[in-house]
Amino acid sequence: MEELAQLAHTAGAQVVGRVLQRIERPSPFYLGRGKLEELKAEREASGATLVIFDDELTPSQQRNLEEALKVKVIDRSALILDIFAKHARTRAGRLQVELAQHQYLLPRLVGQWSHLERLGGGIGTRGPGESQLETDRRLIRKRIQRLQKALEEVRSQRALQRQRRRATGLPVISLVGYTNAGKSTLFNALTRAGVPAEDRLFSTLDPVTRRVALSQGTVALLTDTVGFIHKLPPTLVEAFHATLEELEEATVLVHVVDITHPHARHQVQVVEKTLEGLGLAGKPRVLALNKVDRLPLAPEKVAQVIAQIGLAPDERPVLVSAVQRWGLETLLKAVEEAIHEAWESQMARMGAVHFLG
Questions:
Q1: Band of the pLDDT at 212, cuts 50, 70, 90?
Q2: Host H or E run for residue 50
Q3: Alpha-carbon dihedral of residues 260, 202, 248, 273, nearest 10 degrees?
Q4: What is the pTM of this model?
Q5: Angle at the Cα of 284 from the Cα atoms of 278 and 286, rounded to 5 degrees
Q6: Does residue 203 carry a pLDDT above 80?
Q7: What is 169-350's CATH number?
Q8: Domain positions in the chain
Q9: Cα(107)–Cα(125) distance, rounded to whole angstroms?
Q10: Distance CA 291, CA 346 (A)
Q11: How far is CA 71 from CA 43, 44, 66, in A?
């Protein structure tokens, strides 16, 4: 629930109350009848104008809840889509967000326009715009097709860029991690690029690549990418395929973890599961435990925090502070070793294929 509150704050909402319920089987109102009455009372007492649910709602559940609560109701997916719409800066970013929003809206068109129109704008309606509320399925599908075509052009352009990068022979390092783990701050610390790095969720949507010198003078390309989050809407994963393709080209992934976060272990699991879903589970990686400057300095305390993350026995994490620039040389050395191991493994596979052929 704390993460949902953070997401709401990032979207520009002020959280005035919370209601929790464990349910085995969602009802037509998602909540049980008693909990719904409690929510209605709290909503009226607080004067809230928006209710956000942490799970994805069906169109009928959303409609029933809005009729019962007399305010706009959105789910976690709509909230994340709204944040992406708010933070999209480039043409490619805006195209990807708009495609995800339309794909999210399409199954919710039936019977939705009239009551959505009544409830007005604000969080959950950024992106496609109020004018879209009068469109029908045919127009939405046509818009989706145009967006997909435009994004194919973006993918082609980025494929050409990656082809040029491959021609240089330089290894590629991609930063991955949970949103707000400090990837952009680490990116700036390693490259002095000056990309926006803010203490908020999803401050980076578009990939940024810069050259970086590794520990022994080797030059590599370092890419900062969009962060992951629990319950990332499938429409976003699909729409951001052009961005996530950058990870496929990486020689090594640097998984950045906010070691101070109370749910760091869960965040690590979410990132690993997301990478697995993208077919990148076998990609070589280095684990960078960031924000170590906020930890107690006693070695046993640091070791205790690391143990709580639940790393595999063969994982050798690197402790860093992107803000204080601690541990950067150690990180670059670990990355360089991972690159050489990846190259040796690739050469061995090529030799085996040549021998078998």
A1: very high
A2: strand 50-53
A3: 50
A4: 0.84
A5: 110
A6: no
A7: 3.40.50.300
A8: 1-83, 88-111+135-168, 169-350
A9: 16
A10: 33
A11: 9, 10, 6
